[in-house]
Design goal:
alpha+beta; about 40% helix
Length: about 120
């Protein structure tokens, strides 16, 4: 009979450990700030720009898509760019923690221009 209780105890431990990560995940404002700081760090790294920094606030899409978008600006590191400023749009997948970036066509150097174009 003792073996039966030991088996039931281990089953309870295994079942409880499945829910532990869900219970350990904080959901308050502090946890949100930490998550957004991680998005900013990963997106700055993914941008490939020198002196990169977030521009504006992140845009969090719904949980179904699981994406957060963040515009990052900085300086192109390639010598032929002669220190030109640029911007990339970073998409951060909250489920996998992966960030990917693509050049943003309306970079900071064009944002304030008065060329009359779109």
């Amino acid at each position: 009979m003792e073996a039966r209780y030991r088996t039931a105890w281990w089953a309870a431990v295994v079942a409880g450990s499945c829910f532990l990560p869900l219970a350990a995940r904080a959901t308050g404002p502090e946890a949100r700030e930490q998550a957004l700081a991680q998005v900013a760090r990963d997106c700055v790294r993914a941008s490939g720009l020198d002196a990169a920094r977030p521009r504006g606030e992140p845009v969090e899409f719904d949980d179904w898509s699981g994406q957060t978008a963040l515009l990052v600006e900085g300086v192109y590191p390639q010598p032929h760019m002669h220190g030109a400023r640029g911007a990339v749009l970073c998409l951060y997948d909250r489920r996998t923690g992966r960030a990917s970036a693509a050049e943003w066509p309306a970079g900071p150097s064009r944002a304030g221009s008065s060329s009359g174009g779109p």
